[in-house]
Amino acid sequence: MATSASSTRSRRAGRRSPLASGALLLIGLLATGGAYTAFTAGSTADASSETQVAKLTEEGAKLFAANCASCHGLQAQGTEDGPSLIGVGAAAVDFQVGTGRMPMAASGPQAEQKPVQFTEEQIAALATWVASLGPGPAIPDEKYLAGDGDLAVGAELFRINCAMCHNVAGAGGALTQGKFAPGLMGVSAKHIYEAMITGPQNMPVFNDANITPEDKSAIITYLKYLENNSSPGGLDLGNLGPVSEGLFVWIFALGGIVAITVWLTAKSN
Amino acid sequence: MTATATTSPEVMETTPPPGKGMRFVNGAANYIEDRTSLSGFVKELGRKIFPDHWSFMLGEVALYSFVVVLLSGTFLTFFFQASMAPVIYEGSYPTLKGVEMSAAMASTLDISFDVRGGLLMRQVHHWAALLFVASIGLHMLRVFFTGAFRKPREINWVVGFVLFVLAMGEGFTGYSLPDDLLSGNGLRIIDGMVKGIPVIGTWISYLLFGGEFPGEAIVGRLYTLHILLLPALVVAAIGVHMILLIVNKHTQFAGPGRTEGNVVGNPIMPVFAAKAGGFFFIVFGVIMLIASTVTINPIWNYGPYDPSPVSAGTQPDWYIGFADGMLRLIPPHLETEIFGFTVTWYILIPIVVLLVFLLLVAFYPFIEAFVTGDKREHHIADRPRNAPTRTAIGAAGVTFYAVMWAAASSDLIATHFRLSIEGVTHTLQVMLIAGPIVAYLVTKRIALALQKKDREIALHGFESGRIVRLPGGEYIEVHEQLSDYERWRLVSYEDYAPLMVRPNAKGRITFGTKVRGVLSRWFFEDRIAPVTRTELEASKHDHH
Predict the structure, then answer these.
(1) Which residues of B228-251 are buried (b: 16+ CB within 10 A; e: fewer)?
(2) B282/A260 CB distance under 8 A
(3) Among B61, B312, B414, whose Cβ lies nearest the Cβ of A257?
(4) Fewer Cβ close by (within 10 Å): the C or N end of chain A?
(5) Is-above-0.95 flag for pTM?
(6) Complex-level ipTM
(7) What whole-number distance in Å separates Cα of residue B312 and Cα of residue A163?
């Protein structure tokens, strides 16, 4: 519509000067391009990024076929050995592969963290391909990962929703049948967020209706605060609570004092 | 000795005229003596002898850490508010700003972050409390394994046991005061146990908490117990413990010159008092060092109590661990329904097991005295190997306690050793029954084997490693003989034989006598007789 309007105008007014036609052509082209850009602004998919996505998807499909399909099936439809990945979203792939949990080294009570096996690009390719299979949670927006949310709210939400498995200080804890909730210190903000929205292993999903993105950001803020600030009281003994305190008092306090009593009562040779 | 000299006037006259400094001391001593006649007491107390062995200092560690607990606790009372009134925290710890909590929790946070030296004092108080109970435990083990609880010290064993229980009570009430998530969960477990008692359980729970758990009364009530009633009882029991210690005199290990009738060691005045004073500061120093470098009970992580969340790794302090462990070990679903009322065996059985265990510990001296039928006084401490059955019983008890204790950290054992928590629990359930039996048998055999070795060494000396060829071509290893001093330790111990079942004056064999006969056989059937004088003489003639 914009194109036809401008061209009619240029025909009516610009026949007299050769310069005018050139200028009008330029305006016309700018308007057309601008309007096109304006119409398609949301998707940022200009020709080159579209091909990039296509390339990523294609590469992802190949990587998936080579590394994941034996358990999840060639179309990620799932097999007896692994669940379907249709609709798990890019966030699930980015978390599982990005923390080294997938591909699994061996079947066990749960997939365990290990050195990451793929490069950033390969993980992105896998995530793009899996995301193309069906709608699912996307990789979180940077603005929720900055660690600048409400600290006190995050701490309270963490105690209420997370501490029963991960411990109040994020030190981790036991689950049934050899499964466990891992410690959260040193986990990147992106992976924490992805874990909340995808619910890996035994973790429940905390969707945006349950905990809003702002509240998730607050929880990340609290965890990053714990990670970056050492305990006000000195050594934290792994933040494991009274068990490590009890062991410490028996071994080091009483052990040390017994050593002193032996020394005090030793007879000189 | 100096102390007694300065307080008794007759001795004063024979001593050379005192120096300038001493004139004041003497004057003051005379002043006090004229008004209180204290010298007799000081003389008696000053000559109380303490033998020099490291294991005799464990009770002192308990006493000194209690002093530290009292001092630091007094500081904490200046700032703590024992109230459950809700307040909004506006202190300086960022993760809790603006959070609603009880005044108790808020004031504990203020002690930690806004009172100068408050966090150090909190940590001193808590570490010293843990050390207090731990040193009582080790002290009890020492007394048990050396037989120092025998006549005339049975009553003092019971007083010590009462102190142990009071210390646990002090610890638990203190643990619950800050009203943080961890302490609230601990109280909830106690509440659950109380409610599990048939008929009266619910009534008692409502009485304790002033209504439905958690209510608004419990912190104030526990505070009264923690700073008033329990400390008074502890101080009183320590007083009785000390008086009985002086009345009964100290035990000592066998050695030349040490008999049932004397105590060899340092008198309180002046040597022991100086040593003990120094040792107090060493214990104080160790506690301060730990408190200033290691976090304990980080309530700022736990947050205020809220009945809904329970953190992973929620455990009581170590001395309540055995009770928590027993609750974790009892199989679930053990309940019966009678006339619409549920009897919760998984609460009642642990309570009974724990009570029976504690009562056995408390009354062990009387049980052993009944079995041995021994009415004599004992002032020479046994070496554990020389009382194999008692040592084995002790080892079984320690194993039983240790399994319960380990069970309290079953979740942490599972995560840290990469095991499944069910596997850990089932293993510990088996160990709770089998562990003490195995420990009993193994310990008894080890004790008997050690006795045999002692006997061998006493009779034939020890292998010197020196090989000598005799003129006839025979090779022998030279055995070095022990000095008389060393041998004394090995040969002088009491020998008990199983009691004969005899009829009493009326010619009857009572039931009690029969029981005693059976128990006595169990205690003393396997025994290694001490080396006799004749055996020693004989061995002197035929050694190489």
Answers:
(1) eebbebbeebbeebeebbeebbbb
(2) yes
(3) B61
(4) C
(5) no
(6) 0.88
(7) 6
